[in-house]
Amino acid sequence: MVPKSHRRTALLAVIRRLLEGVWTAWAAVTLAFFALRIASGDPVASLLSQGLASPEQAEEIRISLGLNAPLWLQYLRFLANLLQGDLGSSLYTHRSVSQIILEQFPSTFVLAVTGLIAAVLFGFILGITAAWLRKRTSGMIAAAIAALATSIPVAFAGILSLLIVGHLLQEIGSSSELLIRLILPALVLGFASSGPIARVIHSGLSESLRSPFILAARARGIRRDVRLLWHALRPSLPPAISLVALEAAFLFTGTVVTETVFSRPGLGRLLVKSILDGDYPIALGLVALAAIFYTISHVIADLLTFIIDPRLRRVE
Amino acid sequence: MKTYTNKIVLLFFVLSMSTLSSACQPPSDKTSTLNYGLTLAPSGIDPHINASAELGIPLSSVYDTLVFLDQANGEFVPGLAERWEISSDGLRYTFYLRKDVYFHDDTPFNAQAVQDNLDYILEPDNHSQKAAMMLGPLKQAEILDEHTIMLVLDEPFAPLLDSLSQVYLGIASPKALKHWGSSEYQFHQVGTGPYRFVEYIPNDHITLERNPDYAWGPPIYENSKASIERIVFYFYEDAPSRALALERREVDIMGEIPAHEADRLTTSAEFSLSAVTIPGQPLQYFFNTTASPTDDLRVRQALLLAVDKESIVLTVFGSHSPIGSNPLSQAGFNKISVPSPSAHKPEEARKLLEETGWKLEGQDTVRKRDGEPLAITLIAPTWGSNSEVAQLVKAGWENIGVEVELIIATGFGALKEIQSSGDYHAIGINFFGTDADLLRSFYASDGFYNWTGFSDSEIDQLLIEAARTTLDPEYRVDLYNQIIQAIADNALILPIRDYVNLVVAHQSVEGLNFSAQGWFPNLIDVQRSSP
Amino acid sequence: MKFPLLKTLCVLWLVAIGLLALTAPILTSADPYEQISSTMQTPTDHPPLGTDALGRDFFARLTYGTRLSLSIPMLSTLLTILFGTILSLTAIAVGGLVDRIILALTNAALAIPGLLLAMLLVAGFGPGLPTVVIAVGLGGIPGFVRLSRSIFLGIKEMGYIDAAYALGASRIRVAFAHILPNSAPQLLSLATTHFAWAFMGATTLTFLGLSGDPSFPEWGAMLNSGRMHLIQSPRLTVIPGILISLTIFSVHYLGENYTEK
Fold first, then answer.
1. What's the pLDDT score for residue C237?
2. Structural contact between residues C73 and C199, judged by C-beta atoms closer than 8 angstroms
3. How far apart are CA B286 and CA B378, in angstroms?
4. Which of B332, B465, C18, C253 suits B257 as a labelling partner, its CA being 20 to 30 A distant?
5. Do A28 and C108 count as a contact with CB atoms less than 8 A apart?
6. How far is C200 from chain B (nearest CA, A)?
7. Are A82 and A288 within 8 A, CB to CB?
């Protein structure tokens, strides 16, 4: 059992980390708000020049959007609305931004989750192979593939996979909708994100395999098999797991490109479209949500590391 | 051993993928569902309010119009109106409506419904972007009896019947209009057409369902009832993904397929091509006549001569497009005379520029006059392969010593914004339509889309006369010929090609044909031969 | 993966494309903007690499494209390094409250992924190559500040820095004369890996169509425009894609393995 004093300091540390998370999320959302507003200027002017509103209507819209108030007041309103889940409405369709985002969310969520699973699997398989079979060709190939994973742009990986799989399917003479709509993009996204994970596992496992306690275990006659692997892997697990939690957020940027290449609906495509259309409320809402999500996963990553590492070590 | 672990991991991965997959399988019942691919997702899909042509592809089967346009002879045939009378002064149109028509919500169609629709369209708070303008000088609608309505105009308006034949003036159920209001109605549309509106998830899909009670189709439909149960429309904004979607059988029909992809797909018997000419304006660029150097007629003429249209059309559109030479396409305006396309004569273009004082000095590649370089800003929209065409136009102009800045406007909004700033010398835009009056908003001095800045009272006179004084078709043709000549004389536009929509359909699709406006399929006629 | 051979190969590759950028006019007489054929030519019909879909010499577009594709991330990286180093050096040299403020701001900015931040900036200013340079440059600052700050922190905690302070050196002097030079190797490595990130980011933005003028030869934009002809002429996408990947790999590998063990 963990001693009471340890529990108290642990609890305090957790609370502190959570508060930091709240602060970071708030600061990021603020940055997003001001960056976009300052860069983009007056959204209503754009409606005017497009002929979507007469000057009188433009004034009305300005009032209804609260644009006549000073910028800091608009910011406070934005914040208040954000906390209630209100992200404003699209400049063109007047639909609630939260509604629009909710509609597109499931598709991106499915892609991101499957992509994350793929990233973890690729990362672990490549990293373990590279370290465990260091001296064999397969180990070196795995290391090379991991390096490729970090250098190849997601877009190119997606395009290549479409080309290759398209040809394969033509040979076989079948066409699997599911394969191309979900599995392929997830695999591509996962592969492109697996580099950091593979690297952490590779270097961590390599080092731990050379460490004294492993050598001692082998000297005692323990064979080079799965059990040994598991023991050697354990020290690398905390950073790997926290990296996985961070990757969850990185996947969001990856989905922007993946959804474009594979024509999947989702938040990534929505973001690009809102940027090209100039529909600022949607772009701002998406970036704000991304920032909050990113912060949450950072906090989870830190907490996971904290839980797995020091306390377990102390107990042992 | 190590490989053992790997195998277990891989197995687990495959198993989880397949369980996940069965959860995500979309229902595909090929016998009674048709999947149709659209291109850009418009910002709104209420035809009474929004102007996009895309929305008409599904919605022209949800609504009926008072009259329909028979493209075979250019005549108007009865739709929801059995017959109509036009007063001799052209100011009063009396429509005698069918008595057997019901909306999809079972409310009856009558004259009151027509009046409610007109009110909805003309209500200023609803911001109708196209339908309202198509009604022109409409003063009021008078209900004469339950199935007779009279439209009263302030002055004669030749395009009125043409307007009334388009989906933007399709008749909607007043009950639905009132219940939902202008911002929500687009998600709950109710018409009288051969298909019912089921749902619209923006950026995702539109679903239509067969209307089994439909019994009042116009003569231009081949079938009297629709045969396909469900039609689902998906959006494919990204051009490279469209052909792929067809090949993967995600959709059975899709339009706006790039020319070389259409050729490739139809080499096999699996797909068939419908090359549909779209009447209206060609893919074209307007010159800004109020900004130097394009304010000089000779400079504009030189720019026209520097462009090799034949080569551009061949490169971008293959063999599928007539070269544009006219402010109006050849299709749909048969009787209007067509000047021959401006030839490709770069030497003559260079001479013209020399004459106007723009000269090349020494090693320069860009002409100068009084130390100023000859700089042109070219704005192109993203649709219709404009981006590719603009790149080639730029290359042609650079060839005669012009410095070109090419800007791709990312959407219609961006295009309009740039235009309002006046920072352009050539800008691309074109509208479609079946009545030559569509020229008016582009070439009249006070036209909403007069992006050339060209003001000529004679052209204004002709435009008004052709639309607001006479209903005589032959006299109108004569007037429009004069207008077109004036536009050519003043080198106001660089037309590139007449629009041809390449629609590729799977071999199991039969009966696909398109309405007079070109974009809209008559879904009632579409059948599946086998799953 | 510590082959000396691999390192040499990477250097050779980078030198090769650098030369490509500089000697483009010598290598080919064709103009990357000029249409030389109405139909797309294969490499057999028109050596060495045929034309793109609009009939422009593909080899010319690739070689001239090297200039744009390299200079955009280079300029962005310079921007990032300049502003990033000033911020992190100030934070460490001055320390105390200033450091805490800069750290807090950086952490906040880091909550928005760099690419998203760049896209946000492009959204505001409108597409165009200069915007891409600035957006990628600014978007990379938070990440660079965090990493360079920890480098400087490591140097600062070395004994000789305290000795310098004890001898009465001002903070500015310490910063420029001691901290900065001693962190040079690590900074160089960081700058190199950052260039790889900027390259990836810039090509992603141009791939998404945010470069403004599609006629400019630039590998990311070419990756995008080649997609239309993926099945018929895969070389239009595959070659730029390979060029991008190899360049990122080489820069990344050199940056990571710069410091000899």
1. 92
2. yes
3. 10
4. B332
5. yes
6. 22
7. yes
Per the CB < 8 A criterion, the answer to whether A97 and A282 are in contact is: yes
Nearest to B13 by CA among A163, A245, A240, A125: A125
* pTM for this prediction: 0.84
> Is B327 in a helix, a strand, or coil?
coil
Residue A152 CA, chain-centre distance (Å), reads 18
Task: Provide the 3-class DSSP secondary structure of residue B63.
Answer: coil
Determine the Cα–Cα distance for residues A113 and A108; give it in Å rounded to an integer.
8
How far is Cα B250 from Cα B247, in angstroms, rounded to an integer?
8
Nearest to C67 by CA among C41, C28, C35: C28
Please answer whether residues B194 and B60 qualify as being in contact, where contact means their C-beta atoms are separated by less than 8 angstroms. no
Q: DSSP label at B432?
A: B
Contacts of A207 (CB under 8 A, 6+ apart): none
Element (H, E) at B254: strand B253-254
Edge-first strand listing for the sheet containing B205-210:
B195-201, B205-210, B230-235, B33-38, B253-254, B500-506, B271-277
Structure tokens, B189: 């549309």
Q: Flag if B238 and A263 touch (Cβ within 8 Å).
A: yes
Contacting residues of C for B406, CB less than 8 Å apart: 213-215
Q: Is the separation of the CB atoms in C133 and C75 below 8 Å?
A: yes
Under 8 Å between Cβ of B499 and B433: no
- The number of residues in chain A equals 316
Distance between start and end Cα atoms, chain A: 10
CA distance A179 to A232: 36
Strand partners, B505: B253, B272
The separation between CA B417 and the C-alpha centre of its own chain, rounded to angstroms, equals 21
- The beta strands (E) that lie in chain C are given as none
Query: Alpha-carbon distance B13 to A311, whole Å?
Result: 32
Q: Which residues of chain C have pLDDT under 50?
A: 1, 260-261
- What DSSP string runs through A271-286? HHHHHHHT-HHHHHHH
C173 membership: H or E segment, kind and range = helix C171-173
Rounded Cα gap, residues B244 and B37, in angstroms = 11
- Tokens found for residue C76: 């962005």
CB < 8 Å to B395, chain C: 33-35, 56, 215
pLDDT tens digits in sequence order for chain A, 316 residues long: 556 677 777 788 788 888 888 888 888 888 888 877 776 666 676 666 665 666 776 777 777 777 777 778 888 888 888 888 888 887 777 778 888 888 888 888 888 889 989 998 998 888 888 887 777 777 778 888 888 888 888 889 988 988 888 777 767 655 566 667 788 889 999 998 888 888 888 888 888 777 777 777 777 776 667 777 777 777 777 777 777 777 776 777 788 888 888 878 888 888 888 877 777 888 888 888 888 888 888 888 777 777 766 554 444 3
Contact assignment for C33 to B314 by CB distance below 8 Å: no
Token pair 């209900």: residue: B143
Residue A137 Cα, gap to closest chain C Cα (Å): 12
Rounded to whole angstroms, how far apart are CA atoms B325 and B260? Answer: 23
Q: Yes or no: say if B492 and B454 are a contact pair by the CB < 8 Å rule.
A: yes
Relative to beta strand B138-145, strand B148-153 is antiparallel
